[in-house]
Design a protein that fits this description.
Helix content is 24%, strand content 17%. By secondary structure, the protein is α/β, with parallel strands linked by helices.
């Protein structure tokens, strides 16, 4: 009887979330790159950057204030989003092979099974068969179209990592035929500003046009899509990751030079895609999600210089085990199903996308898929759903685990870009860090030395999840 009651409840909720029986929503993921929790005005009223379109998303949808990337840098975060598996469980050698194993269920492959048209336009950063150096005259296998996408147009990695060229499906559009000299910007660190590395570049690749190019193509896809079926569009943007290259329209528009201008251009991209959905009269039943892959490259000196904290009140930045490295601005807009102007405190991670979408389109995940994916289906209806824990991987391999208000980090230091990134504890000294985020959201007070019982409990929970190979 209990099982039948739960099944009936799940079915009822599914019908409530699906505005018309049998009519699944279109799904769009807009995935910014190196954008902080404090950059979006809806999350940080003191932000010096105008983000009217993202603020509109918040006003018309739901704001998640406890959403996390599963990794504090690009490729682990993307892996977790697409597979529903924590990235620390996988071999992520993207330069030499595909990070996602052949046959593993992904968000697009699951949605494709449910009858969706699937497309990706943007940054991949999860490797191809054969790895680097690339053979431009051969098909690029093991990438998006071999992992669930019907169509792909994009780049192999970040726009500061050579070689610089576009790929359409499995084919290079224009093979690199010249060398682009390295560039840096005076007044910024070597990994900020208009920074890119020297390397080969294709004749159709221009740094200032990468974001506009992806925006145009994403809008075109919405207009030209197969209108006989729902679609999933994944748009992993190359911005505001370096190089900070806002087009002329946005240069000097922000109170935070270069970076803020580029964030404003990202916001404009969001506005253009929402306008395209509205023009097609499909906005009401399109689930749009906006977030960022990890925290920003934004130092304490930058906060002092410009009066802008890219991570708001959070400690740390990109790569870090601290909250600024992986707590992300996360917005959901779905007018027919999600209450406007709502806020969710449910703790989620990008790994949860797979299970959530599976619930929405009435698909059951097999045991060997989405091992760490837990649906936040009920949170979309405004309920404060509980997740037992989440685990994050820092850029230097630190693992942090969160349970309720408590957070444990298995090493000393930031584990990422913030100095010191690694501290070797002496004999008898703490070997990790412990914070209570309810009392100390900025992680200023390490309780490891005074909360021995809690430390052991968190260590045991982390070991349990590592050994089990899954949390679902």
């Amino acid at each position: 009887m209990k099982s039948n009651t739960l099944s009936l409840l799940a079915g009822t909720l599914l019908l409530v979330l699906s505005p018309v029986r049998g009519e699944h929503p279109n799904i769009v993921i807009l995935f910014a790159d190196d954008m902080g929790y404090g950059d979006v005005r809806a999350f940080n009223p003191e932000s010096k950057i105008d983000t009217p379109n993202l603020d509109r998303m918040a006003a018309e949808g739901m704001k998640f204030v406890d959403a996390h990337a599963p990794g504090s840098v690009c490729f682990p975060s993307r892996y977790g989003l697409l597979t529903g598996q924590y990235p620390f469980r996988a071999s992520l050698r993207w330069k030499s092979k595909p990070c996602i194993k052949e046959g593993r269920m992904t968000v697009p492959s699951m949605l494709k099974k449910a009858g969706y048209q699937t497309a990706m336009i943007g940054k991949w950063h999860l490797g191809f068969d054969g790895g680097m150096p690339y053979q431009y005259d051969k098909p690029f296998k093991g990438g998006p179209v071999d992992r669930g996408f019907d169509y792909f147009y994009g780049i192999h990695a970040s726009t500061d990592i050579p070689p610089y060229f576009y790929i359409e499906n499995r084919t290079v559009t224009k093979a690199p035929n010249r060398t682009l000299p390295a560039r840096n910007t005076e007044g910024w660190t070597k990994i900020q500003g208009e920074f890119w590395r020297e390397g080969p570049i294709g004749s159709d690749f221009e740094m200032y046009d990468v974001l506009p190019n992806f925006t145009r193509r994403a809008v075109k896809f919405i207009h030209d899509r197969d209108k006989t079926k729902p679609f999933f569009l994944y748009v992993p943007l190359p911005a505001p990751h370096t190089p900070w290259v806002p087009i002329k329209k946005w240069q000097g528009k922000s109170k935070v030079p270069m970076f803020g201008d580029f964030v404003m251009q990202v916001d404009d991209t969001v506005g253009q895609l929402m306008a395209a959905l509205e023009k097609e009269k499909i906005a009401d039943n399109t689930l749009v999600l906006f977030t960022s892959d990890n925290g920003p490259v934004w130092y304490d000196e930058d906060v002092k210089r410009f009066g802008h904290s890219s991570t708001a009140h959070l400690r740390g930045m990109k790569g870090d085990a601290y909250e600024g490295g992986h707590r992300m601005p996360f917005l959901v807009r779905w007018p027919k199903a999600v209450s406007a102007g709502s806020t969710s405190k449910t703790m989620i991670t990008f790994c949860d996308f797979l299970a959530t979408f599976a619930d929405i389109v009435d698909q059951k995940l097999p045991k060997n898929a989405g091992e760490d994916s837990h649906s936040f289906f009920l949170a979309l209806k405004g309920e404060n759903q509980k997740r037992e824990s989440i685990i994050n991987l820092s850029s230097r391999g630190f693992l942090s685990i969160r349970q309720g208000d408590w957070k444990y980090v298995d090493n000393l230091g930031s584990g990422g870009f913030t100095k010191p990134n690694r501290i070797k504890g002496g004999k008898g000294e703490p070997k990790g860090q412990l914070f209570n985020l309810k009392d100390d959201p900025s992680e200023k007070n390490d309780l490891y030395a005074t909360q021995g019982k809690r430390v052991k409990e968190m260590q045991a929970l982390l070991s349990k999840h590592k050994e089990a190979g899954r949390t679902r």
